[in-house]
Structure formats: C-alpha cells, structure tokens
UniProtKB/TrEMBL annotation, chain A:
Its EC number is 2.7.8.37. Belongs to the ABC transporter superfamily. The lineage of its organism: Bacteria, Pseudomonadati, Pseudomonadota, Alphaproteobacteria, Hyphomicrobiales. It comes from Aminobacter carboxidus. The gene is phnL. Residues 5-233 form the ABC transporter domain. This is Alpha-D-ribose 1-methylphosphonate 5-triphosphate synthase subunit PhnL. InterPro entries: AAA+_ATPase (IPR003593), ABC_transporter-like_ATP-bd (IPR003439), ABC_transporter-like_CS (IPR017871), CP_lyase_PhnL (IPR012701), P-loop_NTPase (IPR027417).
UniProtKB/TrEMBL annotation, chain B:
It comes from the Bacteria. Residues 7-252 form the ABC transporter domain. The keyword Magnesium does not apply. PROSITE patterns: ABC_TRANSPORTER_1, ABC_TRANSPORTER_2. One of its GO terms (biological process) is organic phosphonate catabolic process. SUPFAM superfamilies: P-loop containing nucleoside triphosphate hydrolases. Keywords: ATP-binding, Lyase, Nucleotide-binding. It comes from Aminobacter carboxidus. This is Phosphonate C-P lyase system protein PhnK. Belongs to the ABC transporter superfamily. InterPro entries: AAA+_ATPase, ABC_transporter-like_ATP-bd, ABC_transporter-like_CS, P-loop_NTPase, PhnK. One of its GO terms (molecular function) is ATP binding.
Length: 235, 258
C-alpha cells in the first residue's frame, strides 16, 4: 500500500487524578498520513505535542479519540483500539521506533541490543550480529564497545546504539524521536544517509528533529503540530 | 505456531468469608507472553496467582488451560492427581521465599533432578548432566552441585529454585515476587537471568510483583490490582508511561527517581 500510516482526528488529554482531576489537553484533531518512501517531520515548539503524537502511533500512549490506521501485513489495523497483542505484533513487524533515550538492560551487550529486533523476528543470531556489526561500524561506534552493555556509554554512544537498533529491521513505518540530538556532525551525516536509504526502500518515516540542518536534509514535508493544539478547541 | 491462548480466565472470584480476595478477573494468556500483576500488599494479586496455580480454589469463575495435546481442560474440574502432574511438568511456581519451593536438606543437584524423575527420567547420568547444565544456566558453579541449598546465599537459592522449575521445560511459570527478598545487585542479576531465560525458552509467565521496574523489564502486559479488582490493564509500557486509573497514577508517581 502506498500509504502505510493514516492518523485521523486523533485527540489526547491527560487527566491528573492526583492533582484534583485536572485535565490537560495535549492535541486534538490530529490528521495526516504518510506515503511509502516519504519522510514527514512533526514541527512546532516544545510542548506542542510532537512526542505525544509519536508515542500514540507507537501505542505507547493511549488515544482518547480518533483512529491510527496502519497497514500491518496487508491488513488495516486501528492502533487506537487494538489489543496489546496486536500492538506488539505491529511493533515487531510493521512500526519501528528510535526513542530519544536508550533503555538499557543490565548485562546485555550493545551488539545484542542492536541485533534483538532481528532475532525477535526469527533471524538467526549470527546473521543478526553481522548486520548489527555493520550498522554499528557505519555509525562509528568503536568496536571495543560492542561487547559491553551500553549502560556506561556516553549519551552520543548510547544514541548510536539506539539508532542502529531502530534501523536494523525493514519495518515499513519508522518513527524517529530526535535521533540526532546528541550526535556530532559526522554521525549526523551518517544518520541522514541512513534515512535517505530507508526512503529509497519505500519506508514511511515520521520524525521529530530539532536540528534544523538535519530537518532540511531529510524532510519531504512538515506536519505543523500547532494546528492540532487542543487548547483551541477545548477552551 | 498457534494462535490460541494457553490460559483463559473468566470472571474468577475468591472470597474469604465476606471479604474479597479478588473479584471478577478475566484475561487470556498466550504462549510466550509474560503478564505482570502489580498492586500493593492486600490488593489480591497473590490470591489471584494462587487460584490460577490451583493452590487455592476460587469461589466462582473458570480457568481453562490448553494442554500439550491442545485439549482445553477446566483447571478446577481436574482430578487432584492430574493437577499435581501438571504442576510438576508443564508448570512452574517460583516462590518469593526459595525455602518454600526447594527442599533445603537435599543437594542442589537433587533439587533439580527431582523434577526430572517426576516425569520418568531414571538414568542417573542423564539426570546429573542435565542438573549440571541447568546450574550453569542459572550461574551456579558446578562444584556446588552436592551442597544443600541451606548453604547457599539468598540469591543463589532463588536461582536454584528457578532451575528446579525450568528443568522440565514448562510452558507456564507462576512467579510470586521472584526478586522480593533480595538486595538490589542480586536482584538485577536475577532479573536479567530471568529475562534471558523467558525469551530463549519462549515461556509464558504470570509474575506477581509490587515492583514496577521488575514489571517493566520482564513483562509485555500488565494488570494493576487494587482491593481485589483489576483497575487498569494493557501493554506494560502503555500502562506505565500513560497511566489512566487514579491508583496507577499514584503507583507510577510514587517511584523514587535515582
């Protein structure tokens, strides 16, 4: 399908029960879609709800209203109402995610962290390791670090592990939450070319980039999140 | 690869007299899935676990289990002998206190081997080599095989209990606060080990814990219980990152940041 992800009239608010039930509207009426081979970038100032939108698409935040339709193995799934098992299947095969921070697990090596999404999809460990090594090499992570758990790595090193983990699979949809935030210029270039390759392969990308240079380089389209400001409707 | 659940729980309730243990609990568990049940002491999570593991009989409701031959059986209508057989072979139960799940006065090797003998293994050499293999997998040195668990530290005992449970290749493991009495560094090692074993063996597990970090690390799905009821359920990261029920918000916001 040419449009693997459609977000339609999505609304989200947080209700803070511990603060007397205050309702904080985040976004409303979020509607956009992404075509295969396109990189759309969520634009807007901090607090506009960019990350919340990304997290709703990944199933990490609940959705109050609307639909998030994804093409999962040729079937249309609404992530806003899908059960946990379906969301997990969609994450394994269809939607990849590069988060801002790596959640490290004690004693698991960087190479295994990166290879894990492939292993989860039934690819044998040796091949998964080979592909993980290739990506970590491209991202200039020193080889002596590969066998170590990333908990003690620097911010930029952890982020590269995270990027490699997100880019290793061929998920048709890839979400990027500031993947270049703590990278130096050389590695930013690597990420830009990785994104370019994904586009060539027909991956639909949705990202947040605060770095204007990277945004210019990769964005085919800016989705302006301020137009989805929930305050406007809620007030 | 099957697309049927392993365990189906419908409207399960357990009352202690007029007091609620747990009430109206329903869920399905699929092969390879880890479900965390979280909540404070007295929320009914252990009551639920004990009902599911047939250590307690519920007051009402049903739980069916898909046996290895794909036949569905009602857990509470099985004979005692059948249930015991299930418990010894296809299920595991990891207690918070290892002394409840181990035999403290027989050797570590025998603790592991006993479950193999229960499923008909009689060849001493095979039993011993399997025991050695499993002690290795839970990171207990081979030369401790003839020691009694009385001589083991808390963390080692807990790892031994896990080996004893997993040696028969169960499909479903119940865990009651598996890291409960351990200090933090030992906890991290055990969690990491459990996580690896659960993934490699494709186990389904129901883990009762009050520790949200344990739930995050081990489980894909979680149920939050309060006063015997499930107040929120869903994908583990969704429940923890976007908690909806007042009680879940309280739990999540009570975690101390390090």
């Amino acid at each position: 399908m040419a449009t693997p992800l459609i977000v339609s009239e999505v609304a989200k608010a947080f209700t803070m029960h511990l603060r007397g039930g205050i309702r904080l509207p985040v976004v409303a009426n979020v509607s956009f879609s992404i075509r295969a081979g396109e990189c759309a970038v969520l634009g807007g100032p901090s607090g506009a709800g960019k990350s919340s939108i990304l997290k709703m698409v990944y199933g990490n935040y609940g959705v109050d209203q609307g639909q998030i339709i994804v093409d999962h193995h040729g079937q249309l799934v609404d992530l806003a109402t899908a059960n946990p098992r379906t969301v997990l299947a969609v994450r394994r095969d269809t939607i990849g995610y590069v988060s801002q921070f790596l959640r490290t697990v004690p004693r698991v090596s960087a190479l295994d962290v990166v290879a894990e999404p492939l292993v989860a999809r039934g690819i044998n460990r040796d091949e998964a390791h080979a592909r993980a090594s290739e990506l970590l090499g491209r991202l200039n992570l020193p080889e002596r670090l590969w066998s170590l758990p990333p908990a003690t790595f620097s911010g930029g090193e952890q982020q590269r592990v995270n990027i490699a983990r997100g880019f290793i699979t061929d998920h048709p949809v890839l979400l990027l939450d500031e993947p270049t935030a703590s990278l130096d210029a050389t590695n930013r270039e690597v990420v830009i070319s990785l994104i370019e390759e994904k586009k060539q392969k027909g991956t639909a990308l949705l990202g947040i980039f605060h770095d204007a240079d990277v945004r210019e380089a990769v964005a085919d389209r800016i989705v302006d999140v301020t137009t989805f400001a929930a305050g406007k409707v809620a007030a | 690869m099957t697309d049927e659940p392993l365990l189906r729980v419908t409207a399960l309730s357990k009352y202690y007299g007029s007091r609620i243990g747990c009430e109206d609990i329903s869920f399905d568990l699929w092969p390879g899935e880890v479900l965390a049940v979280v909540g404070e002491s007295g929320s009914g999570k252990t009551t639920l676990l004990n009902c599911l593991a047939t250590r307690l009989l519920p007051t009402s409701g049903t739980a069916s289990y898909r046996m290895r031959d794909n036949q569905w059986r009602d857990l509470y209508r099985m004979s005692e002998a059948e249930r015991r057989f299930l418990m010894r072979t296809d299920w595991g139960f990891v207690h918070q206190n290892p002394a409840d799940g181990l035999r403290m006065t027989v050797s570590a090797g025998a603790n592991v081997g006993e479950r193999l003998m229960a499923i008909g293994d009689r060849h001493y050499g095979n039993i011993r080599s399997t025991a050695v293999d499993w002690l290795g997998r839970v990171e207990i040195d081979e030369e401790r095989i003839d020691d009694e668990p009385r001589a083991f530290s808390g963390g080692m005992r807990q790892r031994l209990q896990i080996a004893r449970n997993l040696v028969t290749g169960p499909r479903l493991v119940f865990m009651d606060e598996p890291t409960g009495g351990l200090d933090v560094s030992v906890q991290a090692r055990l969690l990491d080990l459990l996580r690896g074993l659960v993934t490699d063996l494709g186990l389904a597990a129901i883990v009762v814990t009050h520790d949200l970090a344990v739930a995050r690390l081990l489980s894909q799905r979680m149920m939050v219980m309060k006063d015997g009821h499930v107040v929120e359920a869903g994908l583990t990261d969704r429940v923890l990152d976007d908690p909806r029920a007042p009680y879940t918000q309280l739990l999540v916001s009570s975690i101390l940041q390090v």
